UniProtKB/TrEMBL annotation:
Keywords: DNA damage, DNA repair, DNA replication, DNA synthesis, DNA-directed DNA polymerase, Exonuclease, Hydrolase, Methylation, Nuclease, Nucleotidyltransferase, Sodium, Transferase, Ubl conjugation. GO terms for molecular function: class I DNA-(apurinic or apyrimidinic site) endonuclease activity; DNA binding; DNA-directed DNA polymerase activity; exonuclease activity; phosphoric ester hydrolase activity; zinc ion binding. Gene3D superfamilies: 5' to 3' exonuclease, C-terminal subdomain, Beta Polymerase, domain 2, DNA polymerase beta, N-terminal domain-like, DNA polymerase, thumb domain, Metal-dependent hydrolases. This is DNA polymerase beta. It comes from Haloarcula mannanilytica.
Length: 578
């Protein structure tokens, strides 16, 4: 975690605690400052060393906050935050993992019932005490009971977007070690699953002790929970990291085994058995006539590389994102694996926000950011008002009309193509929250569900996809990973409607969403739909999130032609006009 992230996280905690105390306005300022510090390209510790004025040069960071930042670097704590924590000794992250429970509710429940943990919350709900608290009702209480298990489980899994940077860092760090011959990530993080139980990292080395030692010395680790001769486990923040060291000659077999998924490995193992072979973490062995049940018994056929392991089983090498037992074993055996979309093939972003709605930056700053990122085009799609847009976030039709010439004037100066657009809301009955004549005047219409996100949403989304001016269904299920499951959607039926109406289905690359997910993407493509991968950026730093969308597309077997924004601006225009 960079010091910028560290400070941002503290300020967000500050904001949550202020919210819990019922303080108004201030939390919003703290969150905005946190976001800008996180996105700030320089090192915050450098500014802090120069003093409060330098910290205050970051957008949205006023005197009160900059003095706290300096205090933290000087003393190692923010006194006011420490006091707030003592005042409200709640497990904020765990409690707010329950859908419908925010920091404010946590504050009220602590005030009224002294609730600090999920267990206490559950007990109070079961005893009917929650509905007695002012501002809560029987419905909220039932909602807590319905969601607590989900929240408990979710709290134990990290988001891919949180875990992946640690994975990249630990891999680079270990790979630079003297004793390390091979190093790779395995497990769910290598498969780019949207949530991660632990980050698996595998090293090939003849000196396991030195590798375990180097691992334990990694700066980012907060605590080591287990350490043995060839393995170790530790936490960096809330992310668990699992190290395993194997002999370099067996690295490929170990990597294949520890990448999983379990279901993929079962299918691979069954294929081996059919051919009188055995596959395990040590290699592929010919076991014809072998009685010995030692793991390494039999004639070794392959173990050094993953390619060799799959080859020995008569299969193409399987990209990790496909290893979910969704038909990849048969396809690899038949030599018919998809030619997957690659990072770098996506050429633009058509779902982004500016400070006209809830984004943090101007239209010009977003255009500059996406240009620096290397894209060929951008669509500005601020939130329209409507259901789900609380706190005046959405833009009225009238304001959207005013925004069009503003976008066009930035476009005239830009090195890339800039499209006008909107992110409209899909109401529960499938209607779109913006007037038809305005929709017709905009280049890109993203329509997304933002409220009433439970139950079956198929009819609702199909109706939206059939609207002649809707180009993209944004984050179709509305899920928030680890927080809410979102709409149930018959993806096949939605995809058919989308394909028939030239509407693309989005993979929202924001790591909190990754919506659609891999399984749904595969179904959508099979039903003929076009996919579009957008970051839903609210600041220029968010364009970097694209890779999570690309790997989600790969999990859905997407090839280049399946993805709308691999086309150039001309190609995109043809789709929009089609
Ligand atoms: P996670 O960490 O819950 O997000 O998911 P994974 O897939 O990373 O699971 P993890 O960390 O428990 O184990 C890493 C891989 O090791 C897993 O994908 C497959 C392999 N593996 C672990 N335990 C077993 C097992 O009992 N049988 C088989 N076939 N494979 C296993
Ligand atoms: Ca894992
Ligand atoms: Ca593991
Ligand atoms: Zn959006």
């Amino acid at each position: 975690m960079s010091r910028n992230d560290e400070i941002a996280t503290l300020l967000e905690e500050f904001a949550d605690l202020l919210d819990a105390k019922g303080v108004e306005y201030k939390p919003r300022a703290y969150r905005r400052a946190a976001e800008n510090i996180r996105d700030y390209p320089g090192a915050i510790e450098g500014l802090a060393a120069e003093g409060e004025d330098s910290v205050g040069e970051i957008d949205g960071v006023g005197d009160a906050i900059s003095s706290k930042v300096v205090e933290y670097f000087e003393t190692g704590e923010i006194e006011e935050l420490t006091e707030l924590r003592e005042d409200l000794p709640v497990e904020m992250d765990a409690l707010t993992a329950v859908e419908g429970i925010g920091p404010k509710s946590v504050g009220s429940l602590y005030e009224a019932l002294g609730i600090t943990t999920l267990d206490e919350l559950e007990a109070a709900a079961e005893a009917g005490e929650i509905q007695e608290v002012s501002g809560f009702g029987a419905k909220t209480e039932q909602n807590i009971l319905d969601n607590i298990d989900f929240a408990r489980e979710a709290h134990e899994r990290s988001l891919l977007g949180e875990a992946r940077p640690y994975g990249d860092q630990i891999r680079a760090y270990l790979a630079a070690g003297d004793a390390v011959e091979e190093c790779a990530l395995g497990g769910s993080i290598r498969r780019w699953r949207p949530t991660i139980g632990d980050v698996d990292v595998l090293v090939g080395s003849t000196d396991a002790e030195a590798v375990v030692e180097r691992f334990a010395d990694w700066d980012e680790l907060d605590r080591v929970i287990e350490s043995g001769e060839t393995k170790a486990s530790a936490y960096a923040d809330d992310v668990r990291v699992d190290l395993r060291v194997v002999d370099p000659s067996e690295f490929g077999a170990a990597l294949q085994y520890f990448t999983g998924s379990k279901d993929h490995n079962v299918a691979v193992r069954n294929r081996a058995i059919e051919r009188d072979l055995k596959v395990n973490e040590y290699g592929v062995f010919d076991v014809t006539g072998v009685e010995d049940d030692d793991q390494r018994a039999g004639e070794l056929v392959a173990s050094k590389s993953e390619e060799a392991v799959y080859d020995a089983l008569g299969m193409e090498w399987v990209p990790p994102e496909l290893r979910e037992n969704r038909g990849e074993v048969a396809a690899a055996a038949a030599g018919s694996l998809p030619d997957l979309l690659a990072e770098g093939e996506v050429r633009g972003d058509i779902h982004t926000h500016t400070n006209w709605s809830d984004g943090g930056n101007t239209i010009a700053e977003m255009v500059e950011g996406v240009t620096d990122f290397g894209h060929d085009y951008l669509a500005v799609t601020d939130h329209a008002t409507g259901p789900g847009m609380v706190g005046g976030v959405g833009v009225s039709d009238e304001r959207l009309r005013e925004q069009i010439p503003e976008i066009e004037s930035v476009a005239a100066e830009a090195d890339i193509d800039v499209f006008t657009g909107v992110e409209a809301n899909i109401a529960a009955d499938g209607t779109i929250s913006v007037a038809d004549d305005l929709l017709a005047d905009l280049d890109v219409v993203v329509a997304s569900p933002h409220a009433a996100l439970d139950g079956d949403g198929t009819d609702r989304l199909v109706t939206a996809a059939e609207h002649p001016d809707v180009n993209v269904i944004g984050h179709p299920t509305g899920r928030y990973l680890n927080r809410r499951e979102g709409l149930d959607v018959d993806i096949g039926r939605l995809a058919e409607a989308a394909a028939a109406n030239d509407t693309a289905l989005e993979i929202n690359a924001n790591p909190a969403r990754l919506d659609l997910g891999g399984g749904a993407v595969k179904q959508a493509i099979e039903a003929g739909a076009t996919i579009v991968i957008n970051t839903d950026a609210h600041s220029p730093g968010n364009f970097e999130l694209l890779r999570y969308g690309v790997h989600t597309a790969r999990r859905g077997w997407a090839e280049t032609d399946d993805v709308l924004n691999t086309r150039d601006a001309e190609g995109l225009r043809e789709f929009l006009d089609g």
